[in-house]
Amino acid sequence: MDAVAAVWEVLDLPIVIFLMLNFFLIVASTLVYAERKVSAFIQERSGPNRVGPGGFFQSFADVFKLMFKENIVPAQGNEFIHSLAPVLMVVIAMTTGALIPWARTPGGEALAIAPIGVGLLVVLAMTSISVYGVTLAGWSSNSKYSLLGGLRSSAQMISYELAMGAAALSVVLYSGSLDLFEIVENQNHPAAGIFAWNWFRNPVGFIVFSICALAETNRAPFDLPEAEQELVGGYHTEYSGMKFGMFFLAEYVNLWIASLLIATLFMGGYLLPWEALYADALPPVLLTVLQVGFFLAKVSFFAFCFIWIRWTLPRFNYTQLSTFGWNYLLPIAIANILVIAFLVAGYQLIVG
Predict the structure, then answer these.
(1) DSSP assignments along 133-148, one per residue
(2) Would you say the pTM of this structure is higher than 0.85?
(3) R_g of the chain, CA atoms, integer Å
(4) Are 243 and 150 in a shared domain?
(5) Is the Cα torsion angle 208, 24, 115, 134 positive or negative in sign?
(6) Number of separate domains in the chain
(7) Once rounded to an integer, what is the mean pLDDT over residues 96-100?
(8) Does the residue 273 lie in any domain?
(9) How far is the C-alpha of 8 from the C-alpha of 17, rounded, in Å?
(10) Alpha helix locations (H) across the chain?
(11) Per-residue model confidence (pLDDT) at position 215
(12) What are φ and ψ of residue 101, in 5° steps?
């Protein structure tokens, strides 16, 4: 038995990682299907309806199609960097998901693959690295359209990362920790319930972070790096086959990660409404399962909102995008930090 336990301890983490990677692949395919169906509903058409029940397997059929498409590399491009860029995008997107706590285990610990004490800092650092994948893709293609898309993406990421970091810092001021598990638990109050979640006590940070998260995913109305009408396809103009598919995968995984972060930082994460009032009466395992399910429901709602916004709002032009980020979101986020800092300091003086 000791030998079996030792083997399982070694294999446990790889198995969990394998399951997580496949979970993200299924999530990305499901989000593609949801995007097509929601956009079809908004535009009063059917959407996918032939491959599988309700067209659900259309996304999986597209993956098989991309697997057999020819892999084209521009003759004057950098083949190694051209191949590295999409891999970098996917690896960063999926690695970030390992830091998110999905529930509280029966032992009172975080249910996450890598629950580290500075999880929020690592998440922000990892998401900021993704800009390298886009920039390298634009540069290595040796195409003016791709290069312009990569440069636009770099400028856009820088414009909105500062405001997003400032909005996240306002959450840290309330919780006093960079640990995502502690940030969620700080929103757990018996009497206040959902009104103790950060969406209510920090609404400005919630709005700023949500807008910046949408911009970081390069989706409409912030899809300037792609901008088909102006740049053909932006940074992935010269990509085909599975390399293009990997960019597509990274976009939807990033959408899911952004939804995870919004739910974790501002919507109580895995917490149930007024959970502290009845948590002790539920079996610990059942409570954990309910937390995972409710967390998935929150994340799915924000993913739906991202899709809804894409098919509702028109694209900003480049000047509007930069002005909105630097002249509005960043000053508002900084002012919000100062206000919350004064409120927290005042509260500690009164209580202490």
Answers:
(1) HHHHHHHHTT-HHHHH
(2) yes
(3) 21
(4) yes
(5) negative
(6) 2
(7) 88
(8) yes
(9) 14
(10) 2-42, 58-67, 79-96, 119-140, 144-175, 180-185, 198-201, 203-216, 228-231, 241-266, 284-310, 318-323, 330-351
(11) 86
(12) -80, 130
Q: Is residue 320 part of a domain?
A: yes
Which range among 212-221, 222-231, 257-266, 271-280 shows the weakest confidence by mean pLDDT?
A: 222-231
Query: What mean pLDDT comes out for the span 268-292?
Result: 89
| pLDDT for residue 10 is more than 70 | no
The residue to which tokens 């991309």 are assigned: 66
- How far is it, in rounded angstroms, from Cα 219 to Cα 5? 46
Residue given tokens 């006590």 in the structure block:
201
Supply 171's token pair.
Answer: 């959450």
How far apart are alpha carbons 82 and 243 in whole angstroms?
A: 9
Tokens of 114: 């890598």
State residue 230's pLDDT score.
55
- Provide the residue type at 82 as one letter: H
In the chain, the amino acid numbered 308 is W
pLDDT tens track for 65-91: 888 888 888 888 888 988 888 888 888
User: Tokens for 227?
Assistant: 């901008």
**Domain containing 227: what range?**
86-351
Residue 151 — pLDDT band, cuts 50, 70, 90?
confident
Question: 128 and 263 share a domain?
Answer: yes
